[in-house]
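The step that takes the researchers longest sounds almost clerical: writing a folded protein down as plain text. The outcome of that step, for a single protein, is printed below.
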Amino acid sequence: MTQATQLPTQQSTTATFRALKCKECGEEYELKAIHVCELCFGPLEVAYDYDALRRQVTRESIQAGPRSIWRYRPFLPVATDTPIDVGTGLTPLVQAKRLARRLGLNKLYIKNDAVNMPTLSFKDRVVSVALTRARELGFSTVSCASTGNLANSTAAIAAHAGLDCCVFIPADLEAGKVMGTLIYSPTVMAVQGNYDQVNRLCSEVANTHGWGFVNINLRPYYSEGSKTLGYEVAEQLGWQLPDHIVAPLASGSLFTKIYKGFREFVDVGLVEDKHVRFSGAQADGCSPIAQAYREGRDFISPVKPNTIAKSIAIGNPADGVYAVDIARKTNGNIESVTDAEIVEGIKLLAETEGIFTETAGGTTVAVLKKLVEAGKIDPDETTVVYITGNGLKTQEAVQGYVGEPLTIEPKLDSFERALERSHTLDRLEWQQVLV
């Protein structure tokens, strides 16, 4: 792996992204691999020509596009007409009738990115965008700081695109996520520290080696991929917005970009304007955004993560203050739940809807349940819950909580005895629930 240089890029005639803009002071910059404002050190975000989008995009043009996130290409910060497309996106929007009945809701949907391609998490969306832009900018080596899912996605999509890849992860990551990265043969650096320490190291490496780090120097482009989770929900609901969304909070970026995606569809006339409430979910063991929301603060106090929900365990979230602002101004909420509640959330979603989610999804379902019980979700609201990763990656989280198989002899009477034991156990469990 060598130091990379950024080559000049020819802008497509249909590209609609025009600059990088500071979210704090509004200063604009060229479309390079930079992510921090030189004047105020605020984060940079991609700005678009919305007049051009109004002229270019219709519902029909979107529906005629590929069955992936790239049907929304005019809304994404890439210049090429041939992006890296591995089938990412258009994941199911499931009407969760059994979970809704269990919770006392009437219009509940699950946006299921646990089956996203190619690595079973929403990170495939952001990485597809980031690596397409990295290739446009002339990077030959790509990298990331990751709690697991991002490493999986970066390694897989880099392999598909023929890019060199080196990823950085905390050394205590779940085995399934480590294997899910190594299989693509990247260089993997397991850092003895938490995610925030990994991220600081990666910032130094990015400056020294000139690599394209998807969530550092490429972050303005990378984060835009999350908008597709907003676009898809609006399209799948028949070109209308939901009343309420519940999503996990790690850095806060996903939350803010779903909001941006909804607003962009309104601004260009693809959907009617509507008030959408935004509620976020964190684990008690790493809940700096929830703490700021509860205490009425407009700043985030960093924390040291200590939770099974490692994929959202970011103690110093870059977009935390923006997530708090969105929750407040939309009359939403930000809540946190215990590790025990997270496990119950995983089990609840699995046994009602047949969806096995990782700990981030368990956190989101547990917070949904908590909000319902507190009367903070109207039963008649059209509520969408975002499930962002697959439970096969974090099986350790539920080991010891899901029972054991009944071992029997290959004889009918052995089966009958085991079946009776099973029914007895079921009755005892229901008695405990009733008590």
The first helix runs from residue 50 to 56. Residues 2-13 have pLDDT under 50 and may be disordered.
